[in-house]
Records
---
Amino acid sequence: MILFETQSRYELGVLTLFLLMAHVCFAADASRDFFDAAARMFGHRRGGLALASIGGCAGFGTISGSSLATAATIGLVALPEMRRRRYSDALATGTIAAGGTLGQMVPPSAALIVFGIIAEQSIGKLFTAAIVPAITQTLLYCAAIVALCRFRPKLAPPTARATWAERRTALIRIADIGLLVLLVIGGIAMGWFSPPEAASVGAIGALLLCAWRRRLNWQALRNALSETLRTSGMIYVVVVGALIFSVFISLTGLAEQVAHLLGAVSDNQIFTLMTMAALLLVLGSVLDGLALMLLTTPILLPIIESIGLSPIWFGIFLVRAMEIGFVHPPIGMNLFVIHDIAKDVSLSRIFKGVLPFLAADFVHLLLLILLPATVMWLPDLLGQ
Amino acid sequence: MMIASGKNEPGTVFPPKVWNWLFNLGGIALLFAMAVDTLAVAGRHIGIPLPGSIELVQAAILVASSAAMLSATLADKHARVRLVMNRMKDGPLVVLKRVQAVFSVLFFCALATGSIWIFLDLWGGYEESEVLRIPIAPLRIVCIGPGTDSGPVACTDKIPRDIV
């Protein structure tokens, strides 16, 4: 029953079609364009290429929806450039590993879609709610880079300033993808179309854009479709597993018992959330992101609802905790992705480079806990 | 890119035709869903609504997702806890992969059993969608596919050749 119900859900089309949009945009070489534009704008500042990498990750995140894909694609473009300009290995690799996690937070995000399906929440509302946290996360990463470069200027030497003509050319190159992303995310936020429709419009737009850039051919389309099918197939199985698991959890009454246990220790909301954050971070350091979501959502979501917080807020909080797991040993998948690109940089050095960003991550997580309005403000403002 | 090149994935016993067939089925369904949904949006905004578009998209996504799940199994792309597997030596790794394959087979067989059970349970009645009256029974058969096919695939493909 769950298999048929899940597969025939209209909302599940969002996932597949957004993945198709992302894979078609890969074919259009969007990752290089995003980094180039950001590098032309900020590259001349001390640490400018690191800032550009974060900007490139955030920009690419709007079409990718995956941490690993964002880290891998931006890493291929930005790492050689930073190393050529004598940036510290630790800073260069740490920036990309941390920046890659933005792919998971910036809408449209595959993790938010999966959460929306598992928790039966509005995917459009989740996307809108993720906008402010994605911006604050980007700003905190930029602040970490600026602070590092101020105290240790040798980490990132300044580079030549691009002319305004070069900047204009680079910005024009990303204008088409920028407009597409604005249409897709803006359309959902403004209520012009539902998330599944937005995904279809986005996929068609990406195909047209790829054709406009003369990069659309039969081989590129086949690659995009087969990659989309394989990735979405993997996620479908996780979703089906999560839904079956949640039925068992509700039958056993485990969520109620955990809520009762937490309530017996303290009825303070902040304490409960801090405990959850600690649990998610510990589990996130040994579990894959989707597995973490699969295991914890059925248990923690009822607790969140019982203490009067929005499931939408929890979705953002959970994805944020998942992201930290991507750069946190022992799993830290993004660290391994970057290590694959820069094999001569040791994992311990990459981890050292990630530490300032991990500090920014913890500050951000604390901000989400202490100020839930950072998540809920925009959906409330737009009346979603 | 295995499907695109038409060659077999390393370790798989399934011929390229299976991959091509799956790719064509899933790809066409995906493109169909994309086109219908976009036409529905355009139609709604210019005052020519497309009734039943959601039902068409649902059916297409069901076909695409069935092909996708099987593709992921064939390509051995399912999620796993790599923390444990990546740190294992050859001997224990072989045992662990065997255990993993057994659990995969059990999971997919359970899915297939449940789907077949529901299908047989509803065999006597006639289900159809509300607007376009699309018969549901063929879609239920498509849905049984990933479970029934992924079980044997996981059994034969996911266990390394040296074990089989």
---
Amino acid sequence: MSAPAVSIKGRAFGDHLLLALVILLSIVMIAPVLWVIGLSLKDNAELMADPNSVFHAPYTLKNYINTVGTSSVFIWVRNSIIVSGGLTLGTLILSSLAGYGFARLNFPGRDVLFVIVLFGLAVPEQAVLVARHQIFSMLKFHNTYQGLILPGLSAPFGVFLMTQYFKAIPKELDEAAMLDNAGRFRIFWKVLLPLTLPAQATLGIFTFLGAWNDYFWPLISATKKDMFTLTVGMASTQTNFAQSEGIGFLMAQAVFAGAPILIVYLFFQKYIVTAVSGAAVR
Amino acid sequence: MTADIEIRNVSKQFGAMTVLDHLSLSIRAREFIVFLGPSGCGKSTLLRMIAGLEAVDSGEIAINNERIDHLPPGKRGIAMVFQSYALYPHMTVRDNMAFGLANIGVPGKVIEARINEAARILEMPHLLDRKPGQLSGGQRQRVAIGRAIVKEPKAFLFDEPLSNLDAALRTRTRIELAQLHQRLQSTMIFVTHDQVEAMTLADRIVVMNNRKIDQIGTPMEIYERPATKFVAGFVGAPAMNFVDATLDKSGENVTARFADGISVQTEIASSQLTDGKYTFGIRSEDVRIVAAGQGNADGVVDVLERLGERTLIYARLGDGQQIVGSDAGNSRVAVGDRIGLAFDGQKSHLFNETGRAWHAREA
Amino acid sequence: MVDRLAMTPTATLAAGVRAPTADIYAPQWRNFIFVAPFLFFFTTLLLFPLLWGMWLSFHKADTFSSGNFVGFGNYVRLYHDKVFLQSIWNTFYFVLLTVPTLALIGLFLALCLNRRTRTAAVLRTLFFSSSVLSVTIVTLIWRIVFIPNVGLLSTIYGWFGATAPAFISDPNLAMVGIAIATIWWCIGLPMMLFLSALQQIPQDIYEAAALDNANRWQTLRSITLPSIKRTFILVIIIQIVLQFQLFGQAWLMTRGGPNNLTKPLVLYIYDTAFRRWDLGLGAAASEILFILILIAAMAQYLVTRSRGDQA
């Protein structure tokens, strides 16, 4: 919490200055978004003639109707959903299993392997890009869903998160279950996994968001227009601003693409924030 | 169901450290036996070895004459109540109790019947559909016991189950545990560091110290004829008085001499004792308060503790050592008074340097 | 059911044949099955490509063949490649622009918004919401804002009768423009990290300071800031690692221009490996990037390790 309210007269000015700064920053944060929304609600021709027309009526939903009419966007959304959903599901399954294995089970080389996985956290995407691209070329995985989903499954973050979470559950629960004649998998499935739901939610949302917004890998792996994810697809329409279908239309696309994510964010705020600050505080 | 348990020459190491050193013990069927000892003495480890949660490094454990130390925990026919209860938080009480039986394929009706019977015995049928998070500490403990009962095990293991309860609840639960034992007539092994729990619940107590068993006996045996100085000091409150003494073996029975010329006539045969340094031990209830000059020793009263039914008098001898004695509850003694202490020679104990104990001959 | 068990030395001492004791915590091969699926992907798609990438960097490779072994040849070429050196410089410049700014603004916001009022909560949400957008949308927004004559910036400058700086096309300002967009995008994370650090400072310290008549500035300087020193270092290092990997904003806003002045290392790699298909060279460049990031990441690991002792 901030310092307790001990009132001193001189604070009033300091307070107002700080307030002004915060307001200024808030304006900087929100003004571009409002601008974009405004642009999306204007007719393209009108905008070309007079940019300032953004500030007054008439407003129109024409651009949005056209966006909906453009089939590509929906294909891209579908791809994004499949890829992000698939990666999230895969990550949750793999990370939970591996997390349990590292946290609770003993097998030869366990500690060494865990350290290696930990080091994997430091490897940036770029260091493995070129080689991955080659591998997938050989396997003919480019422009496929598996090509977009599989690389993400190698990320150690989820395993690290789940391992820490499993370790925090008291061992007595496992022991009681062993005395209850539960085998190792049963203990995982029926006793421990249900207790990890908060971590699953956090990891799931974090993974989904990351996959949805991913740009680099889908850019180089999905080169055919109908395999684009939403992020890549939208970027591809950005190229020629001047000759494009019109600023209003472009902005409508942006809003169309960004709004769902923002809505999801507003709903799942708690988990996203926990994921982000928890992950870095590791 | 009940069983006798045989522990033969069992040892355990954690790395370089020996945690249990060639222990042997026979537990009879239907017995309520308590492993008593301070933290780190190995009692929990021994319990966990019986349960199968720790490996036996050498030696054997057998139930009803069949070796079990090579079996996994679930297959030993044993149920355990953990100190923290270890209830499954996301399952209802009913499911908690059913889990073990469901895992080995016991028919639903049988499970249902057993759960209801256990709930009846423990007076908790109204709790069956709640989750552990909604229960109080005492209720959770019942569920933990209920989970053990439904398995109809050959033996019950309790790992300090009363430690997490508050004082009033602890006393009540102690009594209920004793009643449970009477009712189920099962072998029960109970681990604790609290000597009151041990004394009140046990048929026999196994006093453990420093990785070894110091004594196995009934509560009264442990209390009246402790085998070692450790046992003597650990059991009984307030702790036994220990005074350094030299021995006068001139008579048939030993006379103990303290510094300051105080002497106490014991009923311990002189022939049994070799020479050396000894410690004299006597319990506070065997030290009576008399007028100054009329007992074995005189002392000045340091502290008084009134307990209601008796008063503990902490008196300082001439050489500075402190002795605790007992007087009536309405004793008139005051701090600073000079009093006499009368030691009951028949209840005296002698301990040598290694802690071995001698007592008066049996009557 | 007897598992594969830990064989103890004393088993050989016992007379006759006896089944070894059960140790539920002994290592067993069959427990591998839980970590195997993940390890499969980890090895094939992370470890192996990592090593292969290094191997590739020592070859003259393209998509059709691994080519000839050229030793450090690729690295030498990089050393002499002005564009590569420019891109390293660009990356450092960019990191210098963004990281301190992100840390300071993030800290400022955390200090101001660390209250339980509804306004503060709303503002916290606002400042974090940009972080959930994709780079595509962010760059779309900021390109429109920066567009000469028509964009938001120009419009606002127009109200005061001035011309807006050309953040995209001006060689001196292009990187700054990208930095502004990036700061707008990434401010949420530093703010959140500082917030959680501030919330871990016990209230009693502030009360003691108040009793000691410390004014706000003194409290800030002597109590608050030292308490979050570790977090500050953490934020800096995380941001360094993150911003080193700049790609999308540069590619979409300026294409690395004008004159390669906004071309970061990752864009160079993209260009080299996936447009010119000079895979060996691209791999070499990415190894250089990896080394630079590794140093920063190592520092982060060490800081969090000792922070863990403190926490």
---
Amino acid sequence: MTTTKTTARTWELLGRGGSASDERAARRPAKYRGLSDPHGAEELGRALTEKIRGLSPAAIVIWEEPEDVVLGHVVGRELSLPVVRAFDADGLVGHSAGLPAAARVVLVTDAVRDARVVRAARALAEQGGGSLVGTAVLIETPLLREEAAGAGSIVSLAQAAEPEGTV
Amino acid sequence: MIDWAELGMSPIAVPDPRRDRERRLAELGRDVVGSAYLRGDFVLSSGARSNYYFDKYLFETKPGILRGLAHFLAELVPPQTDRIAGTELGAVALATALSLETGLPFVIARKGTKAYSTARMVEGEIYPGDRVIVVEDVISTGAQGIRAANRIKEVGANVLGILAVIDREQGGPEAISAAGYTLTTLFSRKDLGI
């Protein structure tokens, strides 16, 4: 797990206000409403990319949700990596084509709100003979920390002090 | 003792309704397995890997099986039930069949990990205080059933319980119980001989 130093600009893009030194900002009720600002999404995606680079992934896995599709696009483009979309196919995890065999995989999502997303990414990677080497999030939630054992290295731009579900 | 031959008659075997029901339920279980049990390397929605999978669509799209399931599930619907709920997409066919069998209206619970303020999470007519039975197809960890039941509670209705076709015996009943709901299933994995 990396130590997250959140800049005032990141807080601003995440919609929480405050500053890097203002710890109370992280405890305020979330205003985050997804990546609705394209410039903000680009900036956050690039910032997250820099944290992922050191994990040397061969593929990015995202869960098929609007924010994650946007974020995955930016990260995949910046790292020139395939982005594999995983989705719930009514009982099974389906995925788009493109997960290389035995790949080092990083899960990219804005925030982990459901542990199944991490577990599914890990299972998909392992099914192809690879491994989930990291989970990259904009906001690190307590739920993700609970799943840390199976999430690989966790990289984030900010940490949520409030209970899961409010991000 | 009656000498049936002397009377020119033969005794009529009167079926035992309970044994007949068990036989028909077992036949239905064999039909479900025969149509929907697949072997392979699967990643389940729970994130777990499994070497087998019940493809719900393979049994929910066969009218004979669907009718049989609705018949037996209807026996489990409490008499005070106002409404049935099924989760999109897989359980909708079951909810529809059960609705036709019982005459009770049904609603569709949306799934998804994110709730957007503009989205209705329960489609159809439902009111606070309604007594609702949630119907599910296959229970694994129980997470989806719990989520559906929570959706129903969020609109102010009361969840009487969760009915399901198959329990894969992967901790679903325990998780559902821990979440404060009751689960009744037609078949366990063991019942189906798997």
---
Amino acid sequence: MIRSVTAKGVIYLLLAVGAVFFLVPFVWMLVTSLKGPEQAYQLTLGLKPSELRWQNYRDAWAALPFTRFLFNTLFITVTATVGQVFSATLVAYGFARFRFPGRRVLFVILLSTMMIPSVVTLVPTFLLWRWVGLIDTFDPLMLGSWFGGNAFFIFLARQFFMGIPVELEEAARLEGASAVRVYWHIMLPLAKPLMLAMVLIAFVAQWNDFLGPLVFLNDFDKYTMTLGLRFFEGSFMGEAPKWHWMMAMTTLMALPVLLIFFFAQRRFVEGVSLTGMKG
Amino acid sequence: MLRVRALGISIGGVVFSIAFVAAVAVCLSGCRRQPAGPRVTIAVWGGAEEIDQFRSRVLASVRRQMPNVSIEVIYIPRDYHVKLATLMAAGQPPDLFYLSDEYVPQYAELGALLDLTRWIEGDDDPAVDLSDYYPSIVSNYRWEGGLYGLPWIAQPVVLFCNEQLFTEAGVELPDGQWRWAEFVEAGKRLTRDLDGDGLPDRWGFVINGWPPFEMFVWQNGGDTLSADGKHVRLLDPKCVGAAQFYADLIGEYQIAPPLDVVTEQGFSELFRAGKVAMFMGGAADELDSVPGLKVSVREVPAGADGSRATFVWNAGLCISRGTADKELAYRTWKLFLDAIQHWKIPAPRRSLAARLETIEPRKARAAEVIRTSMTYMRPFRVIARQRQWDTIMAEEFEEPLLRGAADARTLARQASTELQMLLR
Amino acid sequence: MHRNLELYGAPLARFIVVGVVVALCCWGVYRLLRRFRVGDEAASGYALITPWLLGLLIFAAYPILFSLVLSFTRYSVLQPPEFVGLENYRRIFTADPNFRVAMKVTFAFAALSVPLGMVASLLTAMLLNTNVRLVGVWRTIYYMPSVLPAVSTALLWRWLLVPRGGLVNKLLGGLGLPEPGWFNDPQWVIPAFVLMSLQGAAGNNMVIFLAALKGVPAQLHEAAHIDGAGWWARFRHVTIPQISPVILYHLIMGIIGSMQVFTQPMFIRTPGRSGLFYSVHIYRTGWEYLQMGYACALAWVLLIVILILTCLVLRGSRSLVYYEAAK
């Protein structure tokens, strides 16, 4: 609770100053997306209202089959997010709460898998998928999510679970509930703020992923929005890259995510109240 | 008790869903039809507009001529070589692919390219008539006796001149006789401080590592690499002299803006905005059709003793060594090559260059200059380790040179040793 | 229609099937272990981590071990690898000046960006945890930059940090402060990258810290407040310990992430080798020079370094991190 007015004032001030810093990218993107091709590169932020080129958005969308790209991106992102969140929390629960031999070693191995830059694992991973004949399909981008997805989610969830008091679970286990039931009925609801955070982060990561789609997809119809976006970077016949279109599409791509965030963050407020437990 | 029952129910459900889903999956995979018959895949790069034009002007025409072949295109927006190399590593290379001439020796040495010599030898198709090609660019597609592809474009560097700025400064447009001295002279007069703040607002010229300084070296009668590709010639006085001249355009003569200004306002953007009078760009660049500017295309100036040389950027189409049906690939390759040469300008063939005006009417005014430039155009002499060469050259030599960190001779000494190691 | 089924239906079907199969494996592992008289807790533990174990064996082990094997070979990607023993490692430690430069640059970057990033995101999360008006809007604003693809932010900062006329320097100049050369000045390259990283750090990390802060039981705060603890004391003795698992997480992830930073340095040209980050060096050697074997060796050296750092952190954290249900 903030008691004093001055404290509140200070907070507002800090928030405002920081907000300017954080708004800059978006404002810049928006402004660039409304410029003409010649001015897109220039440093001036200033734009006369009469010169706003809203048609950039329409043109950029029409330049490539973005409706199809959007659908592809959604398809991959939603499935991968679902898979990742569930499997990561399940695995994390195992690491957080259960004692089994080799737990520490396995955990360190988990961490180590994140320490290799993907540039060197790209070729063998590609070979793997080729071996099952799934190159040029969406599968390489989706199927991995059932296996815990990115190790970083498992790590995150584990830390989170380890911070939750055991009493509730112990009560349930004493009554004979299986690990999975405890997971489903107790841990997940308790971890709502975490889950939301994870959904958000997983969604954004998949939504913006470029290297994966680039390498695993050959068919133009399967391309995602990030790939489509990068086509605007090419310069043709000495023309400058189409920065204004690229910014228009980037802005469009950012909007759904921001909306999700805006509505999800309210849930953080309702978040976890463990008061009931300690009674 | 609780557990078993719960699990019991879910087992049934699970088994059912698996059966159902498996059935669906089987059904669907049965539905997927692999296109029977001959297939050719081609990998290309390009921006959004380029893809469109590729489709309508090139792909459509090739498909018409090969109606029974299924042609699949892989459009690669960025990181072209990562994708290409990955496909090759997995044994699934595209049959045909773009490759810029810098990469040909590297890929040829690694056995990724098909040697086309014997295919081309007996073939009298005009698309592969080697005598029609400008010899200077075909040389980069040869490696240790083999020919590994042919170019589909040859863009010589030409000089774009903003006529209005010339008139305002009272300078005559280049007359085809310009050498370095006249170039610098004009540049000085074209660099003007209009608002009296001590900083020029109009510049005569602009460089940022482009055009490649090697072009000036050639104009000076030298070369960075020996003819046999075994020795670095960076320390030759002609080389050093040319490189120093290049740097002096910013530092000493001040006819080109410092790199900071270029970063700030963009490179070709400066020319488009009418702030720079002369720009060296590729012949196909649309700098002469910028709305609001009246631009003339001229040849680049000759060296101090009159030697003419200009840099040519080119890229070609290659066939993968591992392609299954080489005969089919070759036929399709020829069709694509010809179609692209009729689309991208200037084509690397004399017969097509002669018809430049018809192929691309927008370049009609510049056609003569372009054709003349093509007679003395030169690509880099490429080695197998070209990428390392480029990195060292850029980081250890060009960048510090343009920044004025040191003079050409000192930098050349350092860079030479490193570059020489690449040639072992 | 057929096409759509093929494009989406088949992967979706496979997706569901794989999910179900994984779930079955978990169950199967549990039953199997119980049959071998393994205790319930251990069996459950293994069953729960089965998805990851499977993933490890299938998707991680092969590529990672393959890259280890490759690190002892010369591999040009286009041709089969040939064994060269310790040659690559020897070259790393004796004959590659770029290795030392890249290590130094990356280390310097990590040393600055990790602590600064953590402090920044924690402060931001705390600020956004208060009950100010329109907190939802504020939070969204702070989160915005992390939604953008790395390429856009790289472009943006390249533009912002232009020495003459860039927004940042205009601001600094206006305030009478010196205007550094940022990406054009070798001394300022790393601070420039650090600055750029702060914006992204705030986003995702802030979200996680926010979730963690929300998880601190309110009564703990109230109890401490009743006991007369001021804001700072409460922060030190209630908040920090309660969120310490998440702090540890950020520290380790920060180390792992910052040592591997890639997209922004690739996109932004810096003078000479002042901005040569380690993963850029790996990328160049592997993909541009097609010396993938050497690149793998570089990658493994990086892995060892990060591993050592992480183990040190984990070891040191044991006494510092408070796990509610420490086992």
